[in-house]
Amino acid sequence: MTAALTVQSVSKQYGAVAAVDAVSLTIEAGRVTCLLGPSGCGKSTLLRLIAGLEPVDAGAIVSGGRTLSATGATVAPEARRVGLVFQDYALFPHLDVAANIGFGLADLPAAARRDRVAALLDHLQIAHRATAYPHTLSGGEQQRVAIARALAREPAVLLMDEPFSGLDAHLRGALRDSVFDMLRASGTAVLCVTHDADDAMRMADQLVLMAGGRVLQQGTPEHCYREPASVAAARLLGEANVIAGVAKDGVLSTPIGSFPSPAGATAVIVRPQHLRVGAGKANATILSSRFVGATFAVELDAAGQRLMMWTGQPRGAAGDAIAVEAPADMVRLLPA
Ligand SMILES: Nc1ncnc2c1ncn2[C@@H]1O[C@H](COP(=O)(O)OP(=O)(O)OP(=O)(O)O)[C@@H](O)[C@H]1O
Predict the structure, then answer these.
(1) Whose CA is closest to 26, among 43, 50, 48?
(2) Among 75, 47, 43, 57, residue whose Cα is nearest residue 15
(3) ipTM score of complex
(4) Average pLDDT value for residue range 286-300
(5) Which residues, at least 6 apart from 294, have a Cβ–Cβ distance to it below 8 Å?
(6) Where is the ABC transporter domain (predicted)?
(7) Which stretch of DSSP H or E encloses residue 113?
(8) Is any atom of ligand 1 closer than 6 Å to the C-beta of 316?
(9) 17, 183, 192, 234: which one has the fewest Cβ atoms less than 10 Å from its Cβ?
(10) DSSP class of residue 274?
(11) Residue 165 has pLDDT above 80, yes or no
């Protein structure tokens, strides 16, 4: 994999707030990296630092052997080969689609500029809207124009801030997939910010989980989902039970079973869909059971610990005793 850009231990402080705190990550060509975290965790600040809209306090941002940001030195945004797609797309209302896309190409001869714009219109499947004005475009079309405009200057890295937040749910899924397939095929390195775990898992080749200005975990969506580094990382990607137990002689005993634990873990993380009804003795009581569409959400009490189980079928009513277990390969030991 080719690193298109690396962020090296970058920090940014606003007054007492460490908005970005010693963050390191690598963005690779032809891959989509998603930055996922709760509101206020520093995602947008990190994008602004990479775009060069603000200086870093510490650390460095490097691309193509060039230092773009370091303490006291910031290459201007337009000299970075970094494209930015804002949350609201920020199209120029008085320019038509083709002129929006060609806006940053004033330095090209007219014919080359026309060719580049035509290629992008084609590539993003908006050629039929070339002479339309932004206010007449659908949300999905506006998004494509914004991406085309950002790609016009052939950036090494494309930064996207919540690019799907303005689109309705059913449009979102289809667009998300086609836009990112196209970007991957173009070899652009994409860094996309979102607070939506489903979006992030669907579109990312690489996930970066953030909280409180720091990186909690990085890896493929599957790795981060199956092997969360912490409870906070697990919960960013979906509901997770944290079940405490007692560690003795390399075995962790919990209300839902015993698991080998050579490093002396004192708790496990289990996703609600990985809890299942076992054949053994009852070890929990049903507190409630709700039909929530694809599953039943069953709230349990297991030796005083509250757990959530998702199952395909009803498993009883409040007050019923039940045997609950989890397959060992779906249980993640929490570091002691
Ligand atoms: N210009 C600024 N001046 C002062 N504080 C700021 C500034 N920009 C961001 N912050 C603070 O830095 C922290 C990180 O903000 P940031 O906007 O990067 O978070 P975010 O993860 O993008 O949030 P959201 O998902 O809500 O956009 C927050 O505590 C925010 O209040």
Answers:
(1) 50
(2) 57
(3) 0.95
(4) 95
(5) none
(6) 5-237
(7) helix 110-123
(8) no
(9) 17
(10) G
(11) no
